[in-house]
Each structure stands twice: as structure tokens, then as C-alpha cells.
Amino acid sequence: MTKIWKETGFVAKDAWVIETDEVKAGEGETPIYALDAFLAAAAETNGGGLGVLVAPADDVQKLEPYLDRIALIAIAFPAFSDGRGFSHAALLRERLDYQGELRAVGDVLIDQVPLMLRTGFDSFAVTNETALKRLDEHCLMGVAQQYQPTARSSKTVAGFSWRRIGSTGA
Amino acid sequence: MHDIGLHLKKNEAGELGFAVYVGGGQGRTPLIAKKIRDFLPEADLLTYVTAIVRVYNLNGRRDNKYKARIKILVHETGAEELTRQVEAEFDQIRDSELKLPEADIRSIEAYFAPPALADRAEGWEALARAKKADAAFAAWVGQNVQPHSHPDYGMVTISLKPIGGTPGDASDAQMDLVADIAERYAFDEIRVSHEQNLILPHVAMGDLYPVYQALEKSGLATANAGLITDMIACPGLDYCALANARSIPVAQEISLRFGSQARQAEIGELKIKISGCINACGHHHVGHIGLLGVEKKGAELYQITLGGSGDENSSIGEIIGRGFEPEKVTDAIETIVDTYLGLRLDPKETFLLAYRRVGPKPFKDALYGATAEAA
């Protein structure tokens, strides 16, 4: 079963539902549209609080005109080996200055969570059993030394301006 | 021959930077990298590489794991269009936090600062005396010691290719010995070369003889750096689950066949590289003579490529013809070497230069007979 995790812990009630042909948001739920459906819906209304799903092959630049009306962007990881979502997250946070919730969905594994946090994700739809168990145990191992600046700020180290100490990790 | 190649250079103003190449690689699809930028200032290094990796991450192939490579993206997109995409991404991030401040560059320089080398001119006399008294030492100095920017010092290659041994292998006792030598004579520095040898970058001329004597006792003073027995071989079927064929026994047999010091010196610079499968860990594509082990009908077979090179004028070797059984591969190498010795213009024309001049035909004829091409 899928649970939503944030750095504050598991979320008891989450209203977001990824809409597909079979699944639709019900009473008290909020839809997350696939990118094309989102672009069509967003062009028709001026409402805020929207949710959108970005697939690996999508171009996040298309979201730029609507970012202040979006409350949640879900980034799909259909397989852990498809890392395009990391670039999407980095572009949304660093280049487009997206401030809303950024959620990793799909094949979210425990060893990728610290890296996703660094890239700017702040919520995770987790199904993998090991990942759920480790998150429940607050066991989130990261890498202590970091060499790349990312969306998430980290402590600087004397001598090299680009070397960092991670906020998670051993 | 790499995903990203950086060639350190100076521009007309004398500033340090890099020529940037992308999309090289070996394995099942050997490709030589394309130059996408002639000069990148050193401060932009991390930013530019990030742009390359981001363009690759977003646009690289995902449908086939063998094609999920920068080289495939460069090949399919074209170097010109890829350059445009990388430059466009670089423009967006060039002044970001990744840009290296001067202070960082200075810190890196300080880390790699060369040791303070005192003049040791008196060492030349001791060196001359030792060379005169010990012919094997003289041969080792001639083959395994390269010039240093300080005239009283040399750069020593410790060959891990004893004749008939396992290429690139060293025991714990040998590693301890090399560490002791580096501590005493070589400013605590040991480099590992991609040729599977060890390098002591700074050794005074006057210290070469004691260094040699210590190495020699431990079987580490083979005078074959850059010669035919200085082969690169992957672990092969003996140790690797991916391999289709053995590499080490093939290397050992070739080493024994060409082990004589005089014969190696006569042949001159010749790089043989052996891979036990198509993943090409032994870099056979860039061997002057490359051997690729394949499996055919349950038996090992070695395909020979000629004319590859991994230096600044890199080239990918050409397959010369059908493969050879394990017991015939050393004879085939000998045929190739003898053909080269017979056709070279003079001893200064290395195997690679000769091959580039004459092409594959004389070697094909020698290996398969002159009629084979018509068949």
C-alpha cells in the first residue's frame, strides 16, 4: 500500500489522487492531472490549488505560466533506473522557482530519498516495503560529503566553496 | 574514448582551460568522442559538465539499456545539435553556484603542488657507475625511467607485468615494498596507471639504483614499460562472471613467447590489449593489437583487431578476420609481429605508424593467405 511521507513523518490524510481513465477523484479528494489534461484544464479556469503529474518524457517548462496556481507537482519515477525526474525537480526549483509541494511518485526507493530531498522534493508517495519500513524507523542514510550545490541549502566547509556537509547522513 | 573528455590547455591569453569532448566509449559500440568546445575556462568546468549530464539525463535513450549512453545520444543527435543544447543549458547555469571561485582553484592547486625538489646533480655520477656495472639496471633505466621537468630526477614505471605473470597483479608484500620505496625515495607518492602499472613520479637519478635493487629482489623490475609484454588484460573468464573467454592465460603465453629483452627491444613500442568479452574492460578497441575473446559454439575464440590507439590521436582497431582458437592465438600474434618487422621502414617506425601506412592487407595475407580475400 502507498503512504505519503514528508520529513515531518507519514501524512495521515492526503487528499491528492492521480487521475487516470479508471481512477477519478471522489468527494473530498483533489485531482492530479496528467500534463496534457492539466494544460487543457488550466487554460479553461483561473482557479488555484491545482495538481499536475509530470512523466519522465514531459517538458516542465510548459508549466511555467501556471506555477503560481499549482499546489502540487507529482514527478513520476516509473522505474528507479529512470532518473529524468531528478532533472525535472532541479529545473522546477532552481530555474522556475516553483515554491509549492513537489512529490516523488512511483518506484521511490529508500536510497534515493536523501538525493530527492536535496534536489527539492518535499513529499514522497512510497510503496516499496523496505522504504516504508526504514522511513518508519527514521532510518534515512545519506552521504556525508557533498560536492554539488542543489536546491536545498547545506553547510559550507572551509577551503572549498562548493564542498558541503549533508543535513542527512552518517 | 570516454563519455566526457577534458583536454587541459592554455588559450591565446595564457589562461588555463579545457577542450571538451563528449560521446566516446568502448564496449559493444566503440566510438571516438566529438569535440563540442575548443576552450572552456577552468572556472566553468563543473557548470559545463553539469550541463552535459543534464542534457543527457533528459534526452538520452531509455528504451534499451545498452543504448542508455552519452555516446549513443551524441551519435543519434549529432555533435552540432548536441553542442547547441549543451551550450543553451550552460548559458542558463553558467553564473550559478557551481562556478569555481579563484580561491577554490588555488586550493586545488595547493593540494596538487609538486614536492620541493632539491638539486641532486651529484647523483648522475653514481647512476653512470651503476649502469656500467649492471647491464640489467641499464636496460631498466632505458625502458622504465622517463624524463622529469627537474633534470636531476626521473619518473619511474614499476612494471606489474613480469614475463609469464598475471598482468597488473601485485602481492601484499610487493605493495608494502612499493610503499616503503615511495616513502624513502619518492616523496610518498605512488600513481596507478591505466596501463596497470605503478608510477613513482619523482625519483632522483642518484636514487635509481637502490630503488631498482629493492624492486628487483621482489620481482618488480621488469624492464618492459611500453613494450610488447606490457599488456593490458582484463580478469577474463578465470575471475569474471561476464566473460566469454579467458584473458590471463592468453596474456601469459604471449608474454613468454616474446619475453626475451633483446626481442622486445627490437620490436619496440607495441601495445596489446585483451578483453574477455564485448564489454571491453581490457580496452582491446584501442590496442595496437587488440584481442577480444568471444564464445562460439561453446568454445573460446579470439578476434584480432589492429591499429587501435588510445593516445591523443585515438583510433579504433579494425577487425582483421576470423578469430583464432586459444592454442593458435599466440602464433597469430607472432605472425603479425614478424610481418611488421619485415615491412617497417626503419626501427623508428613503430607498429602503429607502420600499420597506418600500409593498412590491414599485408597482415591479412600473412594470417590467412593471399587467397583468403578472394574467397
Care to describe what's here?
The complex is a heterodimer of chains A (170) and B (375). Chain A is an alpha/beta fold and 170 residues long. Chain A has one domain: TIM Barrel. Helices cover 22% and strands 28% of the residues of chain A. Chain A is built from 4 helices and 11 strands; from the N terminus they run E-E-E-E-H-E-E-H-E-H-E-H-E-E-E. Chain A has helices at 35-44, 84-95, 113-119, 129-136; strands at residues 3-6, 9-10, 16-18, 30-34, 50-54, 70-77, 101-106, 123-126, 145-146, 155-157, 160-165. Chain A has an 8-stranded mixed β-sheet with strand order 2-1-8-7-6-5-4-3. In chain A, helix 1 links the parallel strand 4 and strand 5. The longest helix of chain A has 12 residues, at 84-95. The mean pLDDT of chain A is 89. By secondary structure, chain B is an alpha+beta fold. Chain B has 3 domains: 4-111, Sulfite Reductase Hemoprotein, domain 1 (2-Layer Sandwich), CATH 3.30.413; 123-217, Sulfite Reductase Hemoprotein, domain 2 (Alpha-Beta Complex); 234-368, Sulfite Reductase Hemoprotein, domain 1 (2-Layer Sandwich). In chain B, helix 9 (248-257) crosses helix 11 (326-343) and helix 11 (326-343) packs across helix 13 (361-368). The model of chain B has no long low-confidence stretch (mean pLDDT 94). The interface between A and B is medium-sized, with 16 and 16 residues.
